[in-house]
Design a protein that fits this description.
Number of strands: 5
Oligomer: single chain
Number of helices: 8
Radius of gyration: 51 Å
Length: 317
């Protein structure tokens, strides 16, 4: 009986070990079955309508380790980059309008109010004077920028300043493709910059460090140029420019008209008398000239006659 007791204990321990192994295998199988479901849930969340929501779901894990999130475009062009990436075109709108106004000063005040109400600003302006009929008249030229959604409304209100719209034109330029190209170029340049910084950390000599720093400076200059161009396009797409010229109304020049007149015998007799006087004056003046120049003309005529006679006789002989 004593010899069988250890064998019984060994069998019991072996059974306990087998039961524990089965339990662990069952738990592992259950976890393996539930794991694909959790991955499917995550995949479904990443394929939702909002890409930002998918990124935020991976922003950090339960252990508190921060994971990379989606970075916005640099500078002021983050919203424009989103529009270009989502298919919304970036249109740079611009317009020109030439107005004939009654009072230039009042029109300038109203134009400034339109810009303020639209949330825009004045880019440039010029005022000059021109003389007309001994009076100075004020002319003005303004370039204004208004938010793109206020472009048509601003043009409508500007038309209301005028007595007549002399000339008006408007147009736009699609810069979406250029902006996307700049964004791709910026990403490539930033990746190159990061790699060069890694090379700089691994430089062994001063000469290598100087060469790498020179390359790094060149890349950073290109990055700043691309960012500047992107910011410029973003601002131009966000604000539309309108060139406004204000011309004052000039007074009309009175054109004299000849009133129709009837027959006036007295006037005709007066004109005839004046003409007779003029003719008489001419004849008297001619007689005076002949009386003065005749004594000088007679000897000349005599000499000329003698010369003609002698010449004719010579020809006859």
């Amino acid at each position: 009986m004593k010899k069988r007791f250890p064998i019984l204990i060994f069998v019991i321990l072996l059974l306990v070990a087998l039961l524990a192994g089965c339990a662990l295998r069952s738990a592992a199988t259950k976890a393996a079955l539930e794991l694909p479901r959790s991955h499917a849930g995550i995949a479904a969340s990443t394929q939702g309508p909002s890409q930002v929501g998918a990124v935020s779901s991976f922003g950090s894990d339960q252990s508190g380790i921060e994971l990379p999130t989606m970075a916005a475009a640099p500078g002021d062009g983050s919203s424009a980059s989103g529009n270009a990436g989502s298919g919304s075109p970036m249109i740079v709108k611009q317009g020109q309008i030439h107005l004939l106004v009654k009072d230039t000063d009042q029109s300038i005040d109203r134009l400034t109010q339109i810009v303020s109400d639209s949330g825009g600003y004045i880019v440039s302006n010029r005022v000059w004077f021109e003389t007309n009929q001994d009076a100075n008249y004020k002319y003005a030229s303004y370039t204004i920028a208004v938010p793109v959604d206020q472009f048509e409304n601003a043009l409508l209100r500007l038309r209301g300043l005028s007595l007549r719209v002399v000339d008006e034109s408007a147009g736009g330029q699609d810069v979406s493709e250029e902006y996307v190209d700049l964004q791709s170029r910026l990403n490539n340049l930033e990746s190159t910059r990061d790699r060069i910084r890694g090379f700089l950390d691994q430089a062994q000599t001063v000469d290598e460090s100087l060469r790498i720093n020179q390359e790094l400076s060149t890349i950073e200059d290109q990055i700043e140029q691309v960012k500047g161009r992107m910011n410029y396009l973003s601002n131009r797409a966000a604000y539309s420019t309108i060139a406004v010229q204000l011309d004052p109304e000039l007074p009309k020049v009175a054109v004299p008209t000849l009133a129709p007149s009837g027959w006036d015998p007295g006037r005709t007799f007066e004109k005839a008398g004046n003409l007779a006087i003029l003719v008489a004056q001419f004849l008297v003046d001619a007689a005076i000239y002949l009386a003065v120049w005749l004594p000088f003309a007679v000897p000349v005529l005599i000499v000329w006659a003698v010369y003609r006679i002698i010449s004719s006789k010579r020809k006859t002989a």
